Amino acid sequence: MGGENLPYEPINLEKIKTYSLLDRKSKVEIGDFAGRWQKGGNFRDFISSLPRILAGKDFRQVVEAVVVAVEARRPVVFAMGAHVLKCGLSPIVIDLMERGIVSAVALNGAGIIHDFELALAGKTSEEVEAGLSTGEFGMARETGEFLNGAIEKGVRDNLGIGAAVGRELLGLNPPYGDYSLLAAAYRLKLPATVHIAIGTDIIHMHPRAKGAALGEGSHRDFKIFASVISNLHGGVYFNIGSAVVLPEVFLKALTLGRNLGHPLQQFTTVNMDFIKHYRPTQNVVNRPVSGGGQGYTLFGHHEIMLPLLAAAIIEELF
Known about the structure:
Blueprint: H1 43-49, H2 55-71, E1 76-80, H3 83-86, H4 90-98, E2 104-108, H5 109-121, H6 128-134, H7 141-156, H8 161-172, H9 181-188, E3 192-195, H10 211-230, E4 236-240, H11 245-259, E5 268-273, H12 278-286, E6 294-299, H13 302-317
């Protein structure tokens, strides 16, 4: 069929309206571009050289939010998956706690396992495949006995899991105790809470595990965590490497605080991970700040991003 049978003629572009590029608002300007690195420069020079675009801009704003919160004596909370400890970042977090920057920490159940093993043996993280095939996975005697015993004793003394394990580690004075996040929190009298899911952690397989103690200890920690979050107004909440448990716990704690009338509208939330997950995006970055505040996502490996963030904050504060 010939072109003369087409229903439409090609549109005429001769009369379109245009404007000057120089008058147009643009999202990217060279004034926000990265600076060139000069050999011998210091860390502050490096931060200043980052582009003020996308994640570079977000990173600066997160640093500024922490600085403002610390100077105003508002909470900065680190909720962390166990991978943060396995990446060798305990010294970074403990330093932030000792400097008065991080005011509370929350862990999942695996966090106390790596924290204890690092403190006692200076090593952690077994080869799962090798142990799984023989039935030996998770059966380290000291880990199961110490942690279950500390939790059970702590519940008798009206302590949550975090404080119970921290107290017992301090009393044990293990060879590598300076690397224990929970011992540092107990020493500094900072809230350290642990939020478990029964059956997810190796210590639940050991004969000394008591469901009543695990449940009671973690529930006490949830109530302590909810108290911390109730005071988050003006503060900063970090979810670092937890894809499910801690984002869910945070949302419930936030609901409790608002239900009880606490002013929780203006605060900053930050999710840090190397891939995108549904719950951290919704329950940390989006939903909590929908009525006010700001949520950020910083993608990258913890072993690079967390030291970078900590150094940038310290440079601004001290």
